[in-house]
Amino acid sequence: MELWKISQKVSELSDVIPYYFFSLVSSCLSLSTVLVVFSLGTWGVIGIIVISFYVVIPYLLFAVPVQVLFNKHPKKFSLNYFCLYIFFSLPAVFIYSSVLNFDFSMDILTTKNFYAISLLAALFFWFWDSVFLQKKSSVS
Questions:
Q1: Residue 28 and residue 91: Cα distance in Å, rounded?
Q2: Under DSSP, is residue 40 helix (H, G, I), strand (E, B) or coil?
Q3: Taking each helix axis from N to C terminus, what angle separates 79-101 and 112-132, rounded to the nearest 10 degrees?
Q4: Each residue of 11-59: pLDDT tens digit?
Q5: How far apart are CA 136 and CA 95, in angstroms?
Q6: What is the 3 state secondary structure string of the chain?
Q7: Radius of gyration (Cα) for the chain, nearest Å?
Q8: Of 19, 30, 108, whose CA–CA distance to 67 is shortest?
């Protein structure tokens, strides 16, 4: 690959990185805010900040790679993308909650909270991804 092509790729990537960051931070703050509110607000603002640091790890490991793939064929508020975010959110929440609780049993799959958190995580990431990164305005 020629040097000017590499330089062009790096330049294109550097233009998009802030949007990935804004999408990630907005998703983390949105999810942690909802989690704190539904826990009857006992944590307050400190809880939002702390939970955001915990939530960023699964988003970085599971959602951002999918987001990068989706950005190759951008579609704003695509229902197909939302379904795929849900698909990747389920194992991410399962693995992360199992690691945090040191409980690798399948009991977590029987709780409503598991599915609610998975759906909310996917919903927020899909929404902020569509706002910050997806360029086309088609809905599929």
A1: 18
A2: coil
A3: 130
A4: 666 677 888 889 999 999 999 999 888 886 677 888 889 989 989 998 9
A5: 33
A6: CCHHHHHHHHHHHHHHHHHHHHHHHHHHHHHHHHHHHHCCCCCHHHHHHHHHHHHHHHHHHHHHHHHHHHCCCCCCCCHHHHHHHHHHHHHHHHHHHHHHHCCCCHHHHHCHHHHHHHHHHHHHHHHHHHHHCCCCCCCC
A7: 17
A8: 19
